[in-house]
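Entry 12.
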Amino acid sequence: MHEQLSRTVVVRGRQGLHARPADLFVRLASRYQAQVEIQKGAERVDGKSILNVLTLAAEQGCPLVIVATGPDAAAALQALAELVESNFGEPEPEATS
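Predicted 3D structure (tokens):
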């Protein structure tokens, strides 16, 4: 049995986890054998399904827990957390005053 690993990340983009970043997340998650899930509050969805990821409607500042289970769970979790923490390669949102 494989261990389950998890890591909390925060959505940083002004538009939240919209279609483009969700697509990037799903594509990256799909490269791994590990089962990947995303948890927002009590809701937990398949991190390899674009529709499921979009149903989270994760807005800017929303904490998400990425959960990975499987043979390459650690590598998947690290790569996915870095993707979210890098704001999906988008410029950092402007600070509002």
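Annotation: The chain has a mean pLDDT of 93. Helices lie at 19-29, 50-55, 73-85.
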